[in-house]
Structures are given as structure tokens and as C-alpha cells.
Predict the structure.
Amino acid sequence: MNQRKISTQVLLYFLVLMFLMVIGCSSGGGDAAAPAPTAKTISGTAAAGTPIIGTVTIKDSSSTPIERVTTIAANGSYSVDVSGMKAPFALRADGYVGGRDYHLYSAAVAADINGTINITPFTDLIIANMAQQIAEEYYTSGAFSTMTADELAAAEEALKTKLLPILTAMGLSTSIDLLRTSFNADHTGLDAVIDVVKVTVDPDTVKATLTNVVNNASITMNIVAGGTSTDTSLSATGVTTAVVTDLQAIAGLFDTFTSLFATSLPSPSNTTLLNLLDATFLHDGQNRDSFLSQVTSNSSMIGISFTNVVLLSIDEVAGTAVVSCVVNQNGIPGTETFNMINTSGTWRMAGNRRIAYANVRAVAQYLPNDGIVGTHLWTGLKFNIDASYPAGAAVQSAVVTGPGLPGGGFILNKIIGSPDFMGKDEQLPMPNSDVYYLTNDTTIGAIPENAEYTIVLKSAADGGGSVLATYTDTILKRPLKNSELSVALFPVIIAPTLTALQAYSGGNLTVTWTLPTGLLSEQIDLTLADAGGTNSTTVESSLNAADTSKTLTITTPAFTVAGRNLWLKTVDIYDRRFEIAIW
């Protein structure tokens, strides 16, 4: 048998086959599907002790920078398409966590495309230390076009060295990359370390402070000097993997509470529910029995959820902790703070430990018939003080101090025969109001994000007597300036008309309205009063976020109705209230 001849034939056959394949590929080119382009993304987790509720923006290094925005998922994950964008990139996460507004930064180079880049307080500090300036300024300047992978790595390694004792104590590998290691925002792994180590940056001194909430130890890093510090590392005394276990147990407690109200109201004697609250429970003046009686008889509690638990402090020896969480009721998110107590290995809620309800909110109002010449648009700070329960019975006034308020504070006095409080000083457009109206836009503009207010409860009127309690409250965003107000920002009441309202003296009244984009319905109030205001009756109703209609009912009062007052209250995602009232 001629082996050479066979090999030659095989070779010729192969060449002919290849020729035919080339012809097939070159003819009828429109019939062949082009290969799909390779996706180019940057993904990761945006969290600050819990997932950030908000968005991620990525900015590239083009001479005319391209920015793209994506929404952060409920679990903190994000992914953004960077096709057609030029590396290096700067990233920003905007949103809120635990009742505070956050703007955190991160960065990526070309090698990070289709990889993981996290956005956390740690990455924010890494970027700041690398740039030797506040991370926000670095992002805004666009000066990151020359950023290198080596510079990022050096800054990441330097911060990791400071955190190494805590990373080790919590069972994490020393090879972890604070910028690129994937993690879940579930109080484990790197997320648990973010729970324990709080980062604050002072833009005035350009220094960052890292605080261990377990032992309150802290170190300061000089951002301008590249993150240098007199301390080699942050103390890990008292930090163990037990912290992770406790965080998960506390988060699980709120999950259980949520499940009990998922589709119906449980009994106030429900054993599982009772076991979630400590016997010493006190929340806004309510003890455990009072609180349970209220929440298990209020239909608006059905579907309530407690999520995004943030650790504020923890004492493993004493068995105590303080956490905040997002409370979503009727589709409207808010933030509550709870003290926690560990008894015999079981964590329970102890409430916020306050003797009365004390809250500050930014507010804007549209009062079309306030009788004052102008646009009828008002802005300011609203103070809700409510001493309805025995724990707050002695409270007669409150003094509030903070950004935008007069030096001596804003004083609110308890209304005789009512648990509510109203301002001591006369103000336009609503004398004896619980709102401090702001008319100077320079003053409003100076109010920072996460502005903190101190509320002192006093035993006598006009801010007199002894101090009964002192609390702090925070607003995420400042009130709108007067120059920022417009009628278009407010809901429009379609019915009743003003004429129809002024003819109403009792019975059913159906109110309908439209909502501007970005606002959520929260509450509606209707009041009837006599000519002197001595006698009155009010109905208040909570609303679902998407509601645009509500029927209110007031039994025809015995007094002659001379005044009617209808308030519709809506909120935005930053808990700023937008109110419209007609009377």
C-alpha cells in the first residue's frame, strides 16, 4: 500500500475543503451573523453598614467626561455599562443609610473592567488618601485621568494596615482587597467590618476619623498627607466573631417582627411578638403594653417592614446595642432608632428610650388662601413634639437648637388640654405653629446635609423649669430655599373645591388630588371649628404612598361650624414634607 499517495490525497482533500469554506464565508456576507460585542461593565456593592438606598454614577476620563447613572439594588449591588467610556473611572454612590445622607466615592482603572469595584466608606477614604484631598473634590475636578493601578493599590494597602487587627479579629483574610473583594451587605465578612468601623471625614480639617463602635477607640488620618497617622492601627479590643453573630441575630429579630405583620395584625398577646420586646421597652413615651396595643390594632401596620439594620454602638459585656433601621409603612420609608438588650443570649428591642415623641423635618407649604400677599409658598423646619403618654406627662415645653434657628433656639409650648406643642413666638403665615418659617435663603443655604438638632424637653412653659430629657434628631437634606419653591412641586387638590369645603359641616367628604413625580402621599387631616375656635373636631388619616383619593368622615358636631381646614401632607425620599392646605 502506497502511504505517500494516501497522504497526498488527504492533503488535497483538506485544501479543497478549506477553499470551499473561504468561498462560503466570503459570499452572501449579509447572511452571516456578526459576533456579539463583549459586554463591558463595572459592578460591585455600594454599602455603608447596610445597602445604600440610591444611585451609582460613574465618570470617565474623556476630555468631555461621560457620566452614567444606575440604581442600586435592594441588596446593595450595582452594575454599570462602561462601553464607549475611557478609563480610568471615578464612581460616586448617592443615597441614604440609617437616617443619614451619603455620598461615597470609589475608582477603577482599565484592568477593572468586567470586574468588581465596591463603593463604601473605606473606598471613599482610599480615594481621598490617594488624591490627598476630599474624595468629592477629586471626583468633581476630573483630575483622575492619570490615576494608576499602583497608586490605588498603595492607598488600599495603607488603609488595610490600619484595619488589620479588626480584620483578623473578625476572621477575614489578610489578603482581602477593600476595593475589589466581592461581599454581601448582610452583616458578614467585609460588611461586618464596615458595621464595626465608622468613618467620618471633616472637610474643614481634611482629616478622617476611624472609630471602633465596639470599644470606642479611634484613630485620625491626615488626608492631605496621604492618610498618615500617628497610630499604626485601630484597636480591636473587644472585637470578636461574636459581633457578627449578634448583628445577624438583631437583624433576624426585625425580620421576625416584619413577618408577623406581613398579611394581618397579630394578637398583642402573641408569644413570638412578646418575646421580641424587652420588659423595659419604652418608645416615644409608650411602654411595651401600650406599644403592642397600638401596633396590633392599627390596620396601617399590615405590611410594615423593618430593614437595613445599621449598628450604631454595641457593648458585648453589658449585652446592649443601639441600631437604626428603615421602617417602611404604607410604602413610605422612614428611619427609627432602637436600643437592644441581650438577656440570656436572646436579643430584644427596648425602644428608643424616649419619654415623648420628638422629631424635626424640613417642610415646604403651599397655602393658597393664607390671606398674605405673595406666592403663598413657605419653607422651614417642622417640629413634632408629642407627650401623649404618662412617661412624658411632666413635659411643658421644648427648646430646639441647630442650624437655621435663632441663637436661643425655637421654643414650643404644650397646648392646654392637648399633647401637642406649638411655637411660642408669632410667625407668618401660621401664628402658633409648630413650624419655624425661614425667609432668608442665605440662612437656608448654610444648613448642611445631615443637619443635627438638639431638642431639650423642659418641665415649665417657655423653656423654663428643669431639663427632663435631651434628644437629637437629624434631617437628611436642608429645607428648600424660597427661590426654589414653585406651585408645581406640590400636590393639586381636585376635590373638594374651596366652595364645597366651606359648605361642609359633617358627614362624608371625599378628597381627590394629583401627585407630582417624586412625592408620596403620607397623611390627610380635616378639622371643623366654631367661630371662636373654642370648639373643634379633627379627623386624621394615614395614607398609602400612591393614594390620590380618601373619604373622610366627621359626625356633624353639636357646635355651629364656622371654619373648615383641610391639610394634605406628602413627602419625598429624603423625608422632606410638602403640604398643601385650604380653608
Notes: Residues 242-351 form a domain with the Nuclear Transport Factor 2; Chain: A, fold (CATH 3.10.450.50). The two ends are 111 Å apart (CA to CA). The chain has a mean pLDDT of 92.
